[in-house]
């Protein structure tokens, strides 16, 4: 476990703030922001970054952001609950599979997913 010096704490705060701001602004955060930043800024392995990102999201960190969207009439709670329940099952199954993979394979899969998502978003009308 790393000691919590001021530089590390500030780095963690910056990662959390960026993920939170972008999560509230665009609905992204954990995988898209925190994982790459933990790898680049903290030297985490792909497994460490993914596990830590999931641990952050285990607490309802986006509740206030979701509430703002709800307050503006932009949340379908029935759909959200169904997806959340499926997310729990999928998260368990996906994590079991991911921890069995070599880090280099996991990084490549992660990169491909981000690249495909970026291309689709960029070229969609």
Structure description:
79% of the residues lie in helices and 0% in strands. It is an all-alpha fold. The longest helix has 22 residues, at 77-98. The radius of gyration is 16 Å and the shape is globular. The model has no long low-confidence stretch (mean pLDDT 85).
Note the main attributes of this structure.
125 residues; mainly alpha; 79% helix
Strands, count: 0
Kindly, what is the distance between the CA atoms of the first and last residues, rounded to a whole number of angstroms? 46 Å
> What is the overall pLDDT average?
85
Radius of gyration: 16 Å
Provide the β-strand percentage band.
under 5%
Shape: globular
Structural class: mainly alpha
Secondary structure layout:
Elements: H1 6-26, H2 30-42, H3 46-58, H4 63-71, H5 77-98, H6 103-123
Task: Tell me briefly what this model is.
The chain has 125 residues and is mainly alpha-helical. It is built from six helices and no strands.
């Amino acid at each position: 476990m790393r000691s919590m010096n001021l530089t590390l704490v500030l780095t963690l705060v910056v990662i959390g703030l960026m993920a939170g701001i972008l999560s509230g602004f665009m609905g992204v955060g954990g995988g898209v922001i925190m994982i790459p930043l933990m790898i680049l800024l903290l030297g985490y392995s792909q497994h460490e970054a993914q596990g830590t990102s999931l641990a952050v999201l285990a607490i309802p960190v986006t509740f206030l952001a979701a509430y703002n969207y709800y307050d503006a009439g932009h949340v379908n709670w029935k759909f959200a609950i169904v997806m959340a329940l499926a997310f729990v099952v999928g998260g368990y199954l996906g994590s079991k599979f991911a921890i069995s993979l070599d880090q280099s394979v996991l990084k490549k899969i992660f990169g491909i997913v981000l690249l495909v998502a970026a291309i689709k978003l960029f070229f969609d009308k």
